[in-house]
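Schema walk-through. Below, the input block comes first and the output block second. Nothing else is stored per chain. Lengths vary across the set, and this one has 234 residues.
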Amino acid sequence: MHFKKDFVQELIQLLPDNIKKIPLVYPDIQYGHARFNKDQLDSIYLEHIRDEKDNDVTLKFQYRDFHYVSKSFIFKRLYFTNDGSNEYGFDKDLNINAKYLKIPSMLASLSLRNKVHVLGVLNEWWGLMRLFQNRETDYYIEAYQIEKDGEQVRIPYINYSPEVKHEELVNNYRFKNLNNYVEGLNFEDCGWFCKGSIDKDFKVTLDKNAIYVDISNVNTKNYYSRNRNLQKKG
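--- output ---
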């Protein structure tokens, strides 16, 4: 299961000229994610792209489907990480407008204010993952957004919730338009995650209006079991 080659080439042609000048190496088989907002396709993410220094790059393209605009995609954001953890989102003018943690970490160069903020994120992350490790929850954290437009935020991306079933994806006609862009689409093998929030008792609330569908060759059940086993060993 992967994005169709012709579709990927169409998206690449939509990159602004300043980003086209960046030497990027695209994988032969393109994986990534599709984001849906309230069951409407919102964005496509092309992942596992590398720059000339072998850093990890992701490209986001936003879907437009308005009655006064033809259905199309536009470039929205470039994501960059060189350490596997701290990810930076850049707009079309290559200004940083978002920051994320892909795995738990803290940069030594952060200001005291930002260190306190990240410590809060890490404590929340630890609390939920401890429950996951002990099989007290089915929720697994994929990543955190920690900054948006220069303001501190704490937005976890939460995986494998029992509150959203694969049947909901399969039976919702809006999700089926992924067939136009994905080769071998099979929702039984699709991983997915949502934005959410976690309270002081580590209770999860999902924002099911923002669902991310994984487009890859990773079997969901095997991925879930592997992450739980890794947590148990760690």
